[in-house]
Design a protein that fits this description.
By secondary structure, this protein is an alpha/beta fold. It has seven helices and eight strands. The radius of gyration is 17 Å and the shape is globular.
């Protein structure tokens, strides 16, 4: 049966600093997705040169992160290319991060595909959030290092996540309706599945009160 226990997100194994990495955080509104995004930024990427791409640049949820990164009022793919050009000229001197938060209409943009595949070799990392896997094409979806799956309201969105990332962790004879119900039970109350595609690990997590108030 799919895992019942809980592991701290801080136990996640990260690659060395000579390369970047990519995160996907999936979840519906009020699933804890943005809180998890902010925590991952604070705990892993705080010292990176960061660009946040969002259509909600004025939102209060970015109040903390806005003090240490550039916020763009929409998705600017040319900025991803600019960071690549900078590191190409400086022998990968800088650590860059692009956060693409709920940008739903650019799934086929070639810069997103580059961010999630080859740009890791240029010390450029990415955090992408969304409410459905349909925002990604198959190439981008299959090359993400760390996938965090939270509560999703849509049955179709849950089914997509199960088929893409969790199918082998459910009993083979369990029908999809029961898998969707079980997924929702295990991701309720701001829990997430964490899939580490670098080290081949999967676990459930939830941010602790101490992590949210530190």
């Amino acid at each position: 049966m799919i895992m019942e226990g809980i592991r701290n997100i801080d136990s996640l194994k990260l690659p060395d600093r000579s390369s970047g990495c990519s995160f996907l955080i999936m979840g519906s509104t009020r699933s804890g997705k943005t809180t998890m995004m902010n925590y991952i930024y604070d705990s892993i990427f705080k010292n990176h040169i960061t660009v946040l791409h969002t259509y909600s640049s004025q939102a209060s949820i970015y109040r903390g992160i806005s003090k240490s990164c550039l916020i763009c009022p929409q998705f600017y793919p040319e900025l991803i290319d600019d960071t690549y050009k900078i590191n190409k000229k400086t022998d990968n001197e800088y650590e860059f991060l692009h956060i693409i938060d709920d940008v739903v209409d650019n799934k086929n943009d070639p810069q997103i595909k580059r961010l999630l595949t080859i740009l890791r070799n240029s010390r450029i990392s990415g955090i992408i959030t969304g409410q459905s896997l349909t925002i990604f094409n198959n190439i981008a979806r299959g090359n993400i290092n760390y996938v965090l799956l939270g509560y999703l309201n849509s049955d179709a969105a849950v089914e997509q996540c199960i088929k893409a990332y969790l199918l082998s962790y459910f009993p083979t004879k369990m029908n999809m309706i029961d898998k969707i119900k079980r997924y929702r039970e295990l991701t309720s109350d701001h829990h997430f599945f964490v899939i580490d595609n670098i080290h081949g690990e999967i676990f459930r997590t939830k941010l602790l009160h101490s992590q949210l108030t530190s």
